[in-house]
Amino acid sequence: MFDEKAGSEIIDGKEYVVLCVSNSYEKKFYLNPNFDNLPKKVKQELKAVCVIATTESGGILLMEYDPEGNLLIRTEADEGDIMFDEISAGLYVSKIQHENRELLEELELYYKVFFLHQGIDS
Questions:
Q1: Inter-CA distances, 31 with 70, 79, 122, Å
Q2: From CA 113, how far away is CA 6, in angstroms rounded?
Q3: Residues linked to residue 29 through DSSP beta bridges, in sequence order
Q4: pTM of the model
Protein backbone atom coordinates (compact mmCIF):
# COMPACT_ATOMS: atom_id res chain seq x y z
CA MET A 1 0.00 0.00 0.00
CA PHE A 2 1.29 3.43 -0.99
CA ASP A 3 2.21 5.67 1.94
CA GLU A 4 1.96 9.29 0.74
CA LYS A 5 3.87 10.63 3.75
CA ALA A 6 6.79 8.27 3.20
CA GLY A 7 6.65 8.58 -0.59
CA SER A 8 7.08 4.84 -0.92
CA GLU A 9 5.38 1.49 -0.64
CA ILE A 10 6.47 -1.98 0.36
CA ILE A 11 5.80 -4.79 -2.12
CA ASP A 12 6.96 -8.32 -1.29
CA GLY A 13 9.24 -6.94 1.41
CA LYS A 14 10.98 -4.50 -0.95
CA GLU A 15 10.66 -0.72 -0.82
CA TYR A 16 9.57 1.02 -4.00
CA VAL A 17 10.03 4.79 -4.10
CA VAL A 18 7.05 6.48 -5.72
CA LEU A 19 7.82 9.20 -8.23
CA CYS A 20 4.20 10.14 -8.95
CA VAL A 21 0.64 8.86 -8.80
CA SER A 22 -2.50 9.78 -10.69
CA ASN A 23 -5.74 8.68 -9.02
CA SER A 24 -8.94 8.84 -11.07
CA TYR A 25 -11.11 8.12 -8.02
CA GLU A 26 -9.94 11.14 -6.06
CA LYS A 27 -9.16 13.23 -9.18
CA LYS A 28 -5.74 13.80 -7.72
CA PHE A 29 -2.14 13.88 -8.92
CA TYR A 30 0.70 13.34 -6.44
CA LEU A 31 4.37 14.10 -7.04
CA ASN A 32 6.70 12.85 -4.34
CA PRO A 33 8.15 15.97 -2.64
CA ASN A 34 11.60 14.36 -2.83
CA PHE A 35 11.45 15.13 -6.55
CA ASP A 36 10.50 18.81 -6.25
CA ASN A 37 13.86 19.80 -7.72
CA LEU A 38 13.00 18.27 -11.10
CA PRO A 39 12.62 20.89 -13.82
CA LYS A 40 9.14 22.40 -14.03
CA LYS A 41 8.72 21.13 -17.59
CA VAL A 42 9.46 17.54 -16.51
CA LYS A 43 6.95 17.77 -13.65
CA GLN A 44 4.31 19.16 -16.03
CA GLU A 45 4.97 16.38 -18.54
CA LEU A 46 4.70 13.69 -15.85
CA LYS A 47 1.41 15.14 -14.66
CA ALA A 48 -0.03 15.36 -18.17
CA VAL A 49 0.97 11.83 -19.10
CA CYS A 50 -0.36 10.28 -15.90
CA VAL A 51 -3.61 12.23 -15.69
CA ILE A 52 -4.49 11.54 -19.32
CA ALA A 53 -3.91 7.82 -18.79
CA THR A 54 -6.16 7.63 -15.73
CA THR A 55 -8.79 9.86 -17.29
CA GLU A 56 -9.03 7.50 -20.24
CA SER A 57 -8.77 4.12 -18.49
CA GLY A 58 -9.67 4.89 -14.88
CA GLY A 59 -8.00 3.50 -11.81
CA ILE A 60 -4.66 4.54 -10.43
CA LEU A 61 -1.36 4.90 -12.29
CA LEU A 62 1.90 4.80 -10.35
CA MET A 63 5.42 5.56 -11.50
CA GLU A 64 7.87 4.16 -9.01
CA TYR A 65 11.47 3.10 -8.65
CA ASP A 66 12.34 -0.44 -7.68
CA PRO A 67 15.25 -1.06 -5.27
CA GLU A 68 17.71 -1.18 -8.22
CA GLY A 69 16.54 2.20 -9.53
CA ASN A 70 14.48 1.00 -12.49
CA LEU A 71 11.44 3.18 -13.18
CA LEU A 72 8.29 1.08 -13.32
CA ILE A 73 4.82 2.08 -14.40
CA ARG A 74 1.89 0.13 -13.08
CA THR A 75 -1.84 0.49 -12.74
CA GLU A 76 -4.30 -0.69 -10.15
CA ALA A 77 -8.00 -0.31 -9.45
CA ASP A 78 -10.32 -0.40 -6.49
CA GLU A 79 -11.68 -3.90 -5.94
CA GLY A 80 -15.27 -3.11 -6.92
CA ASP A 81 -14.47 -0.87 -9.89
CA ILE A 82 -16.28 -2.50 -12.78
CA MET A 83 -15.51 0.49 -15.02
CA PHE A 84 -11.72 0.02 -14.86
CA ASP A 85 -10.44 -1.16 -18.21
CA GLU A 86 -7.33 -3.25 -17.57
CA ILE A 87 -6.60 -3.67 -21.28
CA SER A 88 -6.86 0.06 -21.95
CA ALA A 89 -4.68 0.78 -18.91
CA GLY A 90 -2.05 -1.67 -20.17
CA LEU A 91 -2.12 -0.04 -23.59
CA TYR A 92 -1.62 3.39 -22.02
CA VAL A 93 1.36 2.10 -20.04
CA SER A 94 2.89 0.76 -23.25
CA LYS A 95 2.16 4.04 -25.01
CA ILE A 96 3.79 6.02 -22.20
CA GLN A 97 6.85 3.78 -22.30
CA HIS A 98 7.16 4.11 -26.08
CA GLU A 99 6.39 7.82 -26.53
CA ASN A 100 8.33 8.97 -23.46
CA ARG A 101 11.23 6.53 -23.60
CA GLU A 102 13.91 9.23 -23.44
CA LEU A 103 12.27 11.04 -20.51
CA LEU A 104 11.85 7.77 -18.58
CA GLU A 105 15.48 6.80 -19.20
CA GLU A 106 16.63 10.22 -17.98
CA LEU A 107 14.47 9.91 -14.86
CA GLU A 108 16.05 6.53 -14.14
CA LEU A 109 19.54 7.96 -14.55
CA TYR A 110 18.63 10.93 -12.35
CA TYR A 111 17.40 8.62 -9.58
CA LYS A 112 20.39 6.30 -9.79
CA VAL A 113 22.88 9.17 -9.60
CA PHE A 114 21.23 11.47 -7.05
CA PHE A 115 19.39 8.99 -4.82
CA LEU A 116 21.32 5.73 -5.13
CA HIS A 117 24.67 7.50 -5.65
CA GLN A 118 25.66 5.25 -8.53
CA GLY A 119 28.08 6.35 -11.21
CA ILE A 120 26.72 7.31 -14.60
CA ASP A 121 28.14 4.18 -16.21
CA SER A 122 26.61 1.83 -13.58
A1: 17, 24, 26
A2: 21
A3: 22
A4: 0.89
